[in-house]
């Protein structure tokens, strides 16, 4: 795994706008849009929550909003942001790669959070979540994956493309595919595929020791639930629980799905509190 280039991180966050969206300045005049809720009261003694969104998604979705309400009710710190080329952040989506979005996530994590954190990753965000946990192990208390999609550029895109589509992608550098979630086609670039190979995780053991909870719908048309089962086997931690939801789709954004998400996040918060209580005083 190649860690993101720290030279991309520069400048300070700008002032928050009336909409509640602030901007984190990164390199070459680019910025990441984000919303941050600071911890308060008893919540300041608990890990914060960081939400990592999916491919072509943004921080305004149902899962991020549900977690924001959850954290507000408990005084927990919460961070959500848009990768470059996504949502309200600057940049073009077609210029993005896993390395780029991982670097975005490191910048946001390092500069907008403090202390221990629980990462919640949705779809592609589940891949970014794992990379971030490997890069900052001392600050991660737990992981929650929602239809996590590590290695999707290779396993779910490249390996499923017909030969003619592969040849076109290599020849022209991009390929447009229809999307079930947008009227605009999804642009898959050669750079996305080739860069993704630098960050593949499922072929080896993944040295993450913290508790992990994975939620995956059996009716997910985009990321097979077998990805979560394979991920469970690769993780070094023994504390991995996979919740398979019989009628769950890829979004996992129904009220019952959001309630289940908040339940598993609460579980990891309680596990963190219990672990810290048992730790010897230094």
UniProtKB/TrEMBL annotation:
User: Which UniProt key words apply to this protein?
Assistant: Hydrolase, Transit peptide
Enzyme Commission no: 3.1.1.93, 3.1.2.22
Domain of life of the organism in this record? Bacteria
**Record bears the keyword Hydrolase:** yes
Q: Which reaction does it catalyse?
A: mycophenolic acid O-acyl-beta-D-glucuronide + H2O = mycophenolate + D-glucuronate + H(+); S-hexadecanoyl-L-cysteinyl-[protein] + H2O = L-cysteinyl-[protein] + hexadecanoate + H(+)
Annotated AB hydrolase-1 domain residues: 49-260
Return the InterPro entries for the record. Answer: AB_hydrolase_1 (IPR000073), AB_hydrolase_fold (IPR029058), ABHD10_acyl-thioesterase (IPR052382)
Q: Which GO terms describe its molecular function?
A: hydrolase activity
**Role of this protein:** Acts as an acyl-protein thioesterase that hydrolyzes fatty acids from acylated residues in proteins. Regulates the mitochondrial S-depalmitoylation of the nucleophilic active site residue of peroxiredoxin-5/PRDX5, a key antioxidant protein, therefore modulating mitochondrial antioxidant ability. Also catalyzes the deglucuronidation of mycophenolic acid acyl-glucuronide, an active metabolite of the immunosuppressant drug mycophenolate.
- The entry's protein name is Palmitoyl-protein thioesterase ABHD10, mitochondrial
Q: What is the lineage of its organism?
A: Bacteria, Pseudomonadati, Pseudomonadota, Alphaproteobacteria, Rhodospirillales
């Amino acid at each position: 795994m190649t860690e993101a280039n720290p030279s991309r991180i520069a400048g300070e966050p700008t002032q928050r706008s009336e909409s509640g969206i602030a901007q984190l300045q990164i390199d070459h005049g680019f910025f990441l849009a984000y919303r941050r809720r600071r911890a308060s009261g008893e919540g300041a003694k608990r890990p914060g929550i960081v939400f990592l969104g999916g491919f072509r998604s943004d921080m305004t979705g149902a899962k991020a909003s549900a977690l924001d309400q959850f954290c507000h009710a408990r005084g927990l710190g919460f961070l959500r942001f848009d990768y470059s080329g996504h949502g309200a952040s600057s940049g073009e989506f077609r210029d993005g790669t896993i390395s780029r979005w991982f670097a975005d996530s490191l910048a946001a994590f390092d500069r907008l959070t403090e202390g221990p954190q629980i990462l919640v990753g949705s779809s592609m965000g589940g891949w970014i979540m794992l990379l971030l946990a490997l890069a900052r192990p001392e600050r991660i208390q737990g992981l929650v994956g929602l239809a996590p999609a590590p290695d999707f550029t290779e396993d779910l895109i490249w390996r499923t493309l017909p030969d003619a589509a592969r040849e076109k992608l290599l020849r022209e550098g991009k390929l447009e595919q229809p999307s079930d979630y947008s009227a605009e086609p999804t642009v898959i670039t050669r750079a996305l595929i080739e860069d993704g190979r630098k960050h593949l995780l499922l072929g080896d053991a993944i040295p993450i020791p913290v508790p992990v909870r994975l939620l995956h719908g059996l009716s997910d048309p985009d990321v097979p639930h077998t990805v979560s089962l394979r991920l469970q086997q690769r993780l070094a931690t023994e504390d991995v629980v996979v919740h398979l939801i019989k009628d769950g789709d890829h979004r996992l954004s129904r009220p019952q799905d959001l309630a289940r998400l908040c339940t598993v996040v609460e579980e990891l918060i309680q596990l963190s509190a219990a672990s810290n209580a048992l730790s010897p005083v230094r």
